[in-house]
Design goal:
The protein is α/β, with parallel strands linked by helices. It is built from 9 helices and 10 strands. The chain has 2 domains: 154 residues, Rossmann fold (3-Layer(aba) Sandwich); 78 residues, Orthogonal Bundle (Transcription Termination Factor Rho, Rna-binding Domain, Chain A, Domain 1).
């Protein structure tokens, strides 16, 4: 059944929503783990890498941890799928390089590109909010294409660093405060009930994306409209004169 929303902006989760979780866990995570050591050794002087290493030491309470210890901690966090900011920063750097070289190609469900182009062409702004770093998000969407056709431009990216944890209503208020549209004109799409609940508590429109094969499929997204694909979403932006009434 088609779900219709009047919204100026769509805020997108990635994993399980626009893209398969299995691609992240079975492709991206192993790729990252296998290259962490080289990254830490070869790019140690870069500000982002240095800051991430310092954050790992602070989070573990090991200010003297050497590179090998930092790598071991990060590898363990990858296997746990921990949403730790320094890990997400380093993953983002590795994935961005891999996408740029063509070593990896971002995954999108088949219904996603057409929907994003449809919404963007009608004037709806597109934003992304993921636990993955902004660096990773930019690379993901800038290198995501189907049939040689690039995805429409994304108007902004948010992660746990510049917005906050995804299960906190305050994070969604931070995001909508920076957008051109208010919470009630922003539609958040996710497969995670806790995220949808937090967004709803912040006043955003919400829709659960329930895709077969995803970890949360059986549980669904209680309390939120649900779709199995972006093809079932009709997002309409009101004309300016209607918004001004």
């Amino acid at each position: 059944m088609t779900q219709r929303f009047e919204a100026d902006s769509v805020l997108l989760d990635i994993e399980g929503t626009t893209s398969a979780s299995r691609y992240v866990t079975e492709v991206l995570f192993p790729y990252c783990e296998g290259r962490l050591g080289a990254l830490l050794a070869e790019r140690a002087a870069e500000p982002e890498v240095r800051r991430a290493v310092d954050q790992v030491r602070e989070m573990t309470g090991e200010p003297g941890a050497d590179t090998a210890r930092v790598e071991a901690v990060l590898a363990a966090w990858i296997r746990e799928d921990r949403k730790a900011t320094p890990l997400k920063t380093l993953q983002g750097l590795l994935w961005a390089d891999a996408f740029a070289r063509g070593d990896l190609v971002p995954h999108f469900y088949g219904d996603v590109p057409a929907a994003l182009r449809r919404w963007s062409s009608s004037g709806v702004r597109l934003y992304v909010y993921s636990s993955g770093s902004v660096t990773a998000q930019r690379a993901w969407f800038s290198h995501g294409a189907t049939g040689g056709t690039p995805l429409p431009p994304v108007d902004g990216f948010f992660d746990t660093g510049n917005a906050g944890p995804k299960h906190f209503p305050a994070s969604y208020r931070t995001i909508t405060d920076s957008l051109a549209s208010p919470p009630g004109r922003t539609l958040f799409l996710s497969d995670r009930p806790g995220e949808l609940d937090a967004a709803g508590a912040a006043g955003l429109l919400t829709a659960g994306v329930r895709r077969p094969g995803e970890p949360g499929y059986e549980a669904g997204t209680p309390g939120h409209p649900e779709v199995a694909s972006f093809a079932e979403l009709d997002v309409v932006r009101r004309a300016k004169d209607e918004c001004d009434v």
